[in-house]
Amino acid sequence: MNPTRERQGAMALLASSVRGRRRQLTGLAAWSVVQALPAYLSGYVVAQAIDDGFLAGRPGRGLVWLGLLGASLLVGAWGTRQTYERLAAVVEPFRDHLVVIAVNGALRRSPDLAAPADTAAVARVTQHVEIVREAYASVLMVVQGFLVTVVSALLGLFTLAPVTLVLVLPPVLVGLAVFVLALRPMAVRQRASILADERIAETATTMVRGLRDVVACGAEEAVRATVAEQIDAQARATRAVATVTAFRSITVVLGGWVPVVLILV
Questions:
Q1: pLDDT tens across 152-185, in order?
Q2: Does residue 139 sit within a domain?
Q3: Measured in Å, how far apart are the chain's first and last C-alpha atoms?
Q4: Are residue 111 and residue 173 in the same domain, yes or no?
Q5: Structural domain boundaries enclosing 36
Q6: Which residues are within 8 A (CB) of 231 and not within 5 positions of it... i.e. 6 or more apart?
Q7: Do residue 100 and residue 204 come from a single domain?
């Protein structure tokens, strides 16, 4: 299967997962708004506690404002709990569907005696399905958390000090653009890492099955070189994934720390 058809198949699988879980995704989005309530209220509430309370000589009123902030934190914690429940309702059926697809594919290929054995099936069913599951859950959590929290924080900032949006919004947009640009290279490198891991499983299984013949023919060095080549390729692929992941941290600097520095300066 060529890469274009593979991408189309993956997109179709993701689209079917989203279409079949609309109610759960709606609940996830709704509880995410509740989860972000402290981010929306914190700046305004703290400002009121200082200006209308402690600085005005009314500590009781200041404590009431801080109590409101504490109550919002409790509500946000409850929203976080509900968010993870909705996330599990979306991700776990998707993971089960992937396992069914992987197992069915291995079973369909197994009767074909003319084809080589699918020795990577175990790695695909166990490790790789979990990698996809974790990536799927991470994308959902990062996207919903980023959108809801950033929008809430920007709304709160607009309510408290609208002029600061000129300093905050551009770095946030630049950081978001860098994150979006890094998604495709990260997906390409992650796919290469998974395929390299499958090749290691195939090579190692073939070597173990024919180990007696390898020793009898004195081909230990040749087999060792073949296995080492696959291991080195997988290590390079893993380092490439780590490099892209580290590059993605630039988005945190641009969107999180640069606005703070600009405001302080």
A1: 777 777 777 777 778 888 888 888 888 788 878 8
A2: no
A3: 55
A4: no
A5: 1-122
A6: 200
A7: no
